[in-house]
Specification:
Alpha-D-Glucose-1,6-Bisphosphate, Chain A, domain 3; intramolecular phosphotransferase activity; 15 helices; seven-stranded mixed sheet; alpha/beta; 499 residues; 36% helix
Length: 499
């Protein structure tokens, strides 16, 4: 039977269990496929013996399976005549930095916050440009499947070399060059690394671990020990149960704020001095305004662009438009954000999932740089983070609510019937950029919701936002009653109220 890697190589990355789905044999085949699908076509010349040789950079997170998989992947690259720079332990944004600075494609071995038995690969083109289903990943999968079926290409006339390089200090210095924290007031910050790569990068960037000068920061570390088994909690800060320790520590230490990073430290979640979560939408507005102001100071009368996905709060475009920016609304997912970032030369992009993207960081996402912006915003004025964040959270959101349904299409159709079909030419606005978005924002009471189907599970994901708590709860409960096929009497909104 022919090899099928569809369970492993997905739309945006490679992700699977080790060793039954991803082992060194598979990693080597993917490395060779990456060479021929991405690295060699991008090289100045396709001749591996040329003076300027094709290259790639490879790193890995703290999972035990990482080094062996990297070794095999690198062998697939060198067999194809590609010179490999191994940077060892790094965060995903550390890999993006290396790809951007070195100007070569990259591969990051990580499964983010997935359990220890998982590993995966995030691939990028030179300059940290994304590799997704439509930008090379489908070809990587096709080639790798062929190689595993016995069609491994002949080795290049001249094999590539392997060089080990530590880029952590360069990464830390690069980020410090983008946000100057040296002059802020002293801050105490609790950082929960979740036993992930934040425990490697935070001491270098916010401390003196990379030989950089001390900053006016008192960092209280939680779970900085690198451990891919995640013995303390899952390294996914968007799940409330995973920031319980952080919230308590912020209060216990009388800290100014808390930061939580996911496993590969490309996402950052923020809590205020009371231990209360600050929504990623508020962070998107706060950081977006800082980037817009910086762009205006650089270039005067310009209209900077900021990207946000359709789940972020309406406050994001409200604040940024008022500041003279143009906002672009896009689908959920890093490949869509990154594509729009590059297409619009956007200065910044934010997602509800706490991914933050910066033009100054190769249009790629970096949780560390977003965290530095928050520290700068708090430390450059006298008010606590709660007072700052409150400004950017004028509306009430439900958060993402998942419903497991037997028939996604039928469940969605009940919502369409109630909110769209029966409304006729009513006041709601409807779009299907990503799932179903119904908006009553143009008139009172103000509310909107988005209902999206999962790509991998029988789930419908609901996000609701309104101008006040009561309306948000009514819309939330009404849509959920339709999705979950609760008795119609449980629906909290009448047809007239929906209109």
């Amino acid at each position: 039977m022919s090899t099928d890697l569809s369970h492993l190589i997905k739309a945006y990355d490679v992700r699977g269990t080790v060793p039954d789905e991803l082992d060194p044999v598979v990693a080597r085949a993917i490395g060779a496929a990456f060479a021929y699908a991405v690295v060699l076509p991008e090289a100045p010349t396709g001749d591996p013996g040329a003076t300027t040789r094709p290259g790639a950079v490879v790193g890995h997170d703290m999972r035990d399976s990482g080094p062996d998989l990297v070794e095999a992947f690198a062998a697939g690259l060198t067999d194809a005549g590609v010179d490999v720079t191994r940077i060892g332990l790094c965060s995903t944004d550390g890999l993006y930095h290396a790809s951007g600075v070195l100007g070569v494609p990259g591969a990051m071995f990580t499964a983010s916050h997935n359990p220890a038995r998982y590993n995966g690969i995030k691939l990028c083109r030179a300059g940290a440009r994304p590799v997704g289903q439509d930008t090379g990943l489908a070809e990587v999968r096709h080639l790798a499947e062929g190689y595993l079926d016995g069609g491994t290409p002949a080795a290049a006339a001249v094999s590539g070399s392997i060089t080990d390089r530590d880029t952590l200090a360069d990464y830390a210095a690069f980020l410090r060059g983008l946000v100057d924290l040296s002059g802020i007031r002293p801050l105490k910050v609790v950082v929960d690394a979740g036993n992930g790569m934040g425990g490697h990068t935070v001491p270098a960037v916010l401390g003196t671990g990379a030989g950089l000068p001390a900053l006016p920061l008192d960092v209280v570390p939680l779970y900085f020990e690198l451990d891919g088994a995640f013995p303390n909690h899952e390294a996914n800060p968007l799940d409330p149960k995973n920031i319980v320790d952080l919230r308590a520590a912020v209060v216990e230490h009388d800290a100014d704020l808390g930061l939580a990073f996911d496993g590969d430290a490309d996402r950052c979640f923020v809590v205020d001095e009371h231990g209360d979560p600050v929504s990623p939408s508020a962070i998107t507005a706060l950081v977006g305004l800082r980037e817009v102001e910086k762009e205006k100071q650089r270039h005067g009368d310009v209209t900077p662009v900021v990207i946000h996905n359709l789940i972020t709060s309406r406050a994001v475009p409200d604040f940024l438009t008022a500041a003279g920016a143009r906002t672009v609304r896009t689908r959920v997912g890093h490949s869509f954000i990154k594509a729009q970032m590059a297409e619009n030369d956007a200065v910044f992009g934010g997602e509800h999932s706490a991914h933050y993207y910066f033009r100054d960081f190769f249009f790629a996402d970096t949780g560390m740089l977003a965290a530095m912006h928050v520290l700068a915003a708090v430390g450059s004025q006298p008010h606590p983070l709660s007072a700052v964040a409150e400004i950017y959270e004028p509306y009430v959101a439900s958060g993402e609510i998942n419903s497991t349904v037997a028939d996604v299409v039928t469940a969605r159709s009940r919502v369409v019937e109630a909110y769209v079909t029966q409304q006729g030419a009513g006041p709601v606005e409807v779009d299907e950029l990503d799932g179903l978005t119904v908006s009553h924002w143009g008139s009172h009471p103000q509310w909107w919701f988005n209902l999206r189907a999962s790509n991998t599970e029988p789930l419908l994901r609901l996000n609701v936002e309104a101008a006040d708590q009561d309306i948000m709860e009514k819309v939330r409960d009404d849509v959920l009653s339709l999705v979950r096929c609760v008795d119609a009497g449980a629906s909290t909104l009448t047809d007239e109220e929906r209109a």
